[in-house]
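Hi, here's the filled form for the chain we discussed.

Project: internal
Contact: R.S.
Residues: 559
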Amino acid sequence: MLALVWSAYSVGAQNGTFLTQDFGAQYHLAEITAHGAIPLVDFEHGWNAGSFWVSAVLYAIASGSPTIWYFLWGRLLGAGLGAVLAAAIGLRLRLHPAVMVAVALGVLLLATPLHIKYTICLLWVFVLLPTGRLESRPRLAAAARVLLPALVFWQYVELAVLLTGASGLFELFARRGAPWRTRILSCVQLAGGFVLGLVVEAAAYKVLWGLSFADFNRQVILGQTATHEGSQYAVWNFFDLPTESGRYFILALYPFALLLPFVPLVWQRISDSTRLIALAGLVLVVVPIRRVDNPHTTTVSALVLLAVVLVVAELCRPPLVEPDSRGTSESVSKPTRSLIALPLAGAGVLWAAATLWIGFGLQSMAGAVLLVALAVAGAVAGGAFLRGATAAVSAGALVVLGGVPALASVDHLDDMRRDAKSFQVTDAITRWAGPEYERCSGGTREALVMPNYLQLYDTLDITNPTPYYLFHYDFAQYEDVLVPQLEDGSIPVIIETMPLHTPQPWLTDAIHADYVPCSIVRIEKQATTVTIWTHKSRGTIDQRDLTIRQGEAIPTPKG
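And the returned structure, exactly as it came back:
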């Protein structure tokens, strides 16, 4: 009930802007599917045929209303269902009710799936958790491992690939108490389910709609990857978090939370179920690495949040002794005192630092792959070979992982302090460039400030002779209006405070053709250069180039 109420409360009316964004694209595809179109796949986002049909059903229920459709598709089946699934996972694992409530509220309010796509991740681990009825009924478990990848493939290609891979890693490297034959058979079943989904979909399109396999391939398999060559994988700058973000701390905590279960000592103590959830969250790291921002981080953070809560809950219990794949007992290694504890901690530091630096710093899809490989290798190798050294190595790793959110938060506070003083730049421009404006303007109070520090209109007591203020990426739509004004002198003075964020060659060419730089003021303390352009119709003027250094204006040295 809480999830339903929050889903309704947190959705707003969807306007025309909504229809031009990603959500609007999905709404449009839902609409055309509801009217009989048969879309195949949007490879960039992983949407596949089945997801369009689900969206079309929701479109019909909403009677075409984008607001109601988004409530159903985004909030109810995203945040709402995500919270319910998180609580259901807790119920299956027999968590304390207080822990279950904390997990559900965390998914609902903090690590919130944006829409239905990312609730599939929680559904995946809920079905495949190696506990309870599924483990006691091998045939049911085998059917789940085959059918689940096939069904998810029809919904979301991207998630089918990643989650199948995560379950395969779990079977091969993380599952205890099962012989190798069983593990390999489980991997075969998972891969077979993925292939089953692909083959059944290809056959359905061939039989029902006459689509050739070559066309199907271009839409769903290899052909679509050609459109993805230009994808940008961002460098995750831990110490440059956006100060305007209300949830900036998610970006700071995410790398720490993602890798915490893979610290060797932690990996030994957690259950198989937690290992599966941690691996599922790990392979989805490609989503926030590709787009470093809160929305893309929160879409995949529900699994990570769930894994961390389970880790903390299990670390508070006495260590468990579980049979390993050879039938012997695997227990947490007891720490031993050693003179080489410091070098061992250094090894943990190197592992954690390399995993963070390579995984989050490599601007390539290879970064995400290496991140997964290093995390799994550290966890598995640590548990297998470190024994008494586990505690020391893990301590070093935790220092690095914990240092990321700590230092990022300190840096964030410094950013806020600096941003709070942003008016100092405007004040400095007013103080040092203001007299130059008075000299260059000849008394006119009309000038165009571009592209920033619009407070100068007030501090210099000037007005904008045009209706345009924001020099955004599509500013060229005003070219036909502004160029004549630039040519005839209707804009007598231009105060340029910095280069344009988005290049506008037509604008800069017109300025250089019809204006002269009356004054250039270089303010060293604020690292700001202000150019005051005056229209050529004013005739010959005295041009000056000044540098403001240590509170004094001096002529800029030549060369």
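Let me know if anything looks off before we file it.
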